[in-house]
Design a protein that fits this description.
Layout (H helix, E strand, L loop, with lengths): L28 H7 L23 E4 L2 E7 L1 H5 L5 E7 L1 H14 L10 H19 L5 H23 L7 H4 L2 H6 L16
Antiparallel strand pairs: 1-2, 2-3
């Protein structure tokens, strides 16, 4: 009747939250769900763990960003070790945009003869992503996504041509060629916020 709320299916147990445990310990998703605020209990602080940001030992993800203390390269060249909090798109955010791009450049698009039609479907995703992440330290991640988009479009165009692909045609489809077709490029869109 009043069974163990932490007992899982097939007799597997989910870790119980321990009030005497340290704040640095992770609690299970079941415990987090039960600790969520409700209208009856009001807002409550939900603390999963404390992150050690000293000298970049750990980082954390929040709202699609990954935060981590990172050493200043310019100061290091002068022999000064100083860390600043940096942020860039998290692994989950990178995976999510790749999934969206893949959905719009999949095999079923091979029948679309004009690449500009597919580019028009991809551009709003890239613009929105750039608008959200461009104020961080995202230059490297932006380059990775630019490369991924180009590879997906290139693969699609090769499949479209099939046996009719002419020798040397792939070498023509460069980054600049795709940009001339209207593809939005993330590279160069990072803007650092001005100091207050």
């Amino acid at each position: 009747m009043g069974g163990d709320p932490y007992a899982g299916t097939n007799g597997q147990n989910t870790r119980r939250p321990n009030s005497s445990s340290t704040a640095g310990r992770m609690v299970s998703s079941t415990a987090r769900t039960q600790a969520m605020p409700t209208a009856a209990t009001g807002p409550r602080l939900l603390l999963d763990r404390i992150v050690d940001l000293d000298e970049g030992r750990e980082g954390f993800d929040f709202l699609g960003w990954h935060f981590r203390a990172w050493m200043s390269g310019r100061l290091l060249e002068r022999g000064i070790r100083r860390y600043y909090l940096h942020r860039w798109p998290s692994v989950r955010a990178m995976k999510a945009i790749r999934v969206k791009i893949k959905a719009r450049t999949g095999r079923y698009r091979v029948g679309v003869r004009d690449i500009k039609v597919i580019i028009a479907k991809v551009n709003p995703i890239l613009r929105g992503w750039a608008g959200y992440f461009r104020t961080g330290n995202a230059a490297k991640k932006f380059n990775q996504i630019d490369t991924y988009v180009r590879e997906r479009l290139l693969s699609l165009m090769i499949k479209q041509r099939g046996p009719n692909l002419r020798a040397g045609q792939v070498q023509v489809w460069t980054r600049d060629w795709f940009r001339d077709q209207g593809l939005y490029r993330l590279r160069g869109t990072v803007r650092y916020p001005k100091a207050a």
